[in-house]
Amino acid sequence: MSYEHKPHKINAHQKQHTPKERKEDSKPARSYQYVAYVSFSESKKVYTFGCDVNTYKVGDKVIVETIRGLEMGEIVKESEAFFSNGMEIKPILRKATEKDLKQVKENEEKAKKAMEICRECIQKLHLDMNLIEAEYTLDCSKIIFVYVADERVDFRELLKELASIFKCRIELRQIGPRNKSKIIGGLGSCGMETCCSRFLNDFEVISINMAKNQLLALNIQKLSGQCGKLMCCLRYEDSQYKKLREGLPKLNSQVEYKGQRYRITSMNVLLQQVKIENKEDVQFLDFKELWPDIDFSNR
In this structure, are residues 223 and 234 in contact, taking their beta carbons and an 8 Å threshold? Predict the structure, then answer.
């Protein structure tokens, strides 16, 4: 029985190859006639696979070889001629058959039962982890359990129990709150499906400075998504707001207007309007009127 996440130790009696020997033993990357574009049900990300026939059409279900094992994906783009860049890519094995489609349905039902069994084992071992999802590879040679935890979890005993029950390879994969939200899905404050579950595949760093650049009220609760982190959409317009605010003073800065000192209390960079005030007066001005030396024509 083999376990995932278990480091491979080299036996003292095993031969360790020199760099020269390893170079001679390595095989050249396999060449194909075409490259096909495939995505999987749990992700919108597109992966490339090699094939020697150009008969696959968009929407076709195909069986592919991945690092996790055999999986079923969907063709999302017409195949193109293959040009090797020296990197190894996995092949498309065949178009999915009725038997494959049936197997996927059966695996989904088996995965639900596996979730229940795994949860019972987690409770029995008093592990601080929240199980999110379970998935079988197509050939049932491996089960992937996805979980969320605040800290690292010592799941060695859990692996042993699960392996003895399911008699196959077990992979336990810890994910963060953004990935959890992507899997579960939901509606954002905009009323649309959350970006992470709809189209995002990679999560970039979101900082509170992005909210400051857009002159938003720094209410963390309102700026956070259902994952508890700052909303990914804060990044979408960040570069545009930086450009619009280029050369402008910060809020609460002091400015002089018609011989009087004012404080900048608010700005609308889209409408190019600013509010300034002091103890005696409040003014609403266009950017051009307050800052005539700045060129706003390209903003």
Answer: yes
> Tokens for 168?
């196959």
Residue 26 confidence (pLDDT): 53
Q: What is the DSSP letter of 127?
A: -
Closest CA to 145 of 168, 108, 114, 110: 114
Tokens 């992507």, residue located: 182
- Contacts for 216 with CB less than 8 Å, ≥ 6 apart: 223
DSSP state of 184: H
Higher pLDDT, 34 or 297: 34
8 Å CB contact between 92 and 49: yes
pLDDT in tens, 47-95: 899 999 888 999 999 999 888 888 999 999 999 898 877 778 899 999 9
CA angle 89, 94, 99 (to 5 degrees): 135
User: What is the Rg, in whole angstroms, of the alpha carbon atoms belonging to the chain?
Assistant: 28
Q: Which residues contact 46 (CB under 8 A, 6 or more apart)?
A: 37, 38, 39, 76, 77
3-state secondary structure of 283: strand
| pLDDT per residue as tens digits for the range 243-260 | 998 889 988 999 999 989
- Rounded-to-integer distance, Cα 58 and Cα 150, Å: 40
Q: Which two tokens stand for residue 140?
A: 């049932």
pLDDT at 9: 35
Q: Other C-beta atoms within 10 Å of 63: how many?
A: 18
Tell me if residue 213 falls in helix, strand or coil: helix
Residues 6+ apart with CB under 8 A from 269: 215, 241, 244, 245, 248
